[in-house]
Amino acid sequence: MISIKNVSKWYGNFQVLTDCTTEVKKGEVVVVCGPSGSGKSTLIKTVNALEPFQKGDIIVDGISIADPKTNLPKLRSRVGMVFQHFELFPHLTITDNLAIAQQKVLGRTREEALDKGLKLLDRVGLKAHAAKFPGQLSGGQQQRVAIARALAMDPIVMLFDEPTSALDPEMVNEVLDVMVQLAQEGMTMMCVTHEMGFARKVASRVIFMDKGKIEEDCSKEEFFGQPRGERAQQFLSKIL
Ligand code: ADP
Ligand code: MG
Fold first, then answer.
1. Quick one: a GO cellular component term (predicted)?
2. ipTM above 0.90, yes or no
């Protein structure tokens, strides 16, 4: 579903990604972890074509991001993205947050968009909040709305960038529960997260990044079960 091939990226003279290669097969859940500044957000944004890269290529569902002929907005509309900060539209109701891109990008009718949005809102347990504004919801609730909003676009893959790291601890699990459910339903997912409980539960593979490189890329059994490289071990000993 996603094939990242020898991707390198620079900000000026600073190399932020070095020869990154990995793939995510249909239905796989790949957890990306690593120290702050190691390039995790940058890597995941390249998959959504939100960050350009200078070398290599990324193929999403058979479509090359590096190919100048590729319609990037169209590709982006098929890739759901959930960020650390929920980035809901504060001046729109939850209902409208869910409907607007479906109408504007996918050309769905208002009725179709509302119907789909409400179903997804129900699925994340927030149907009763449809008429509220984002500011009236807790952080955990807003993040669940953000997930529902991404799902409303019928994505072929979902990308998450530390979706729980800005939340108060008591709200982390309600968001992880939604993500676990998605994973168990077979959604293809690439998740930057340090929630190793989540990784143990649903990850097909774990990628460990350090200084812009993919240092480990292995099954969760290998990642948690055997001694890894020194940097990964140091990292794990700090967060577990
Ligand atoms: P992570 O998500 O693993 O914490 P990032 O991908 O956000 O790491 O950042 C990787 C490195 O790239 C960091 O050193 C960061 O300072 C740098 N970086 C990120 N965005 C920019 C930018 N727009 N310009 C220059 N450097 C950047
Ligand atoms: Mg980051």
1. plasma membrane
2. yes
